[in-house]
Design a protein that fits this description.
two-stranded parallel ribbon; mainly alpha
C-alpha cells in the first residue's frame, strides 16, 4: 500500500492536530480518533511531522528578493500573520504580480522533500501524486 504524498503534505500542515500514519492500514488518521494504547503495543504507527504554515510563509517571503525587510516586518505585526500574508499575496495581484501561483509552486517545492525524507526514514512506500493538486 502506497501513501499519497498529496495526503501526507495536507496532513503535515493541518493546524493543531497530531496525525498518525497507521502502518497496517496504510492511512493517516487524527491521533484523537484511535486507541493509542493498542497502537503502542504493536508499534503500528508513526507520528506525521507537523509543519506550521507560518514557517512556509516565512520561507517563501525570504525567497522573494523583491519583498523588503520592512514589508516582512509589517506582515508579522498584528493579530494574524497568516491572514496578513494572504491579504498581501492577493493584493499583489492587482499590481499584475501573481504571487498566488509563485506561492503554490514554492509550497510544493518546500514540502515535497520533507515528505519524501520522512517516508524514506520510516520505510513507507509513497506515490507522488502532487501534480493532481498543482494543475494549472
Amino acid at each position: 500500500m502506497n501513501l499519497s504524498l498529496l495526503s501526507l503534505i495536507t496532513d503535515m500542515t493541518l493546524p493543531n492536530d497530531t496525525m498518525l500514519y497507521l502502518r497496517k492500514k496504510g492511512k493517516i488518521v487524527n491521533a484523537e480518533s484511535v486507541d493509542l494504547s493498542v497502537l503502542t503495543l504493536y508499534k503500528d504507527y508513526v507520528v506525521v511531522p507537523h509543519i506550521e504554515e507560518t514557517e512556509i510563509c516565512d520561507a517563501f517571503l525570504n525567497s522573494c528578493p523583491f519583498i523588503s525587510k520592512k514589508e516582512k516586518e509589517d506582515l508579522h505585526s498584528g493579530d494574524s500573520f497568516e491572514g496578513n500574508f494572504r491579504i498581501y499575496i492577493d493584493s499583489c495581484h492587482s499590481y499584475g504580480i501573481d504571487l498566488n501561483r509563485a506561492y503554490c509552486d514554492f509550497y510544493k517545492k518546500y514540502l515535497t522533500p520533507l515528505a519524501v525524507k520522512w517516508c524514506n526514514e520510516n520505510k513507507i512506500s509513497y506515490t507522488d501524486d502532487l501534480y493532481l493538486a498543482f494543475l494549472s
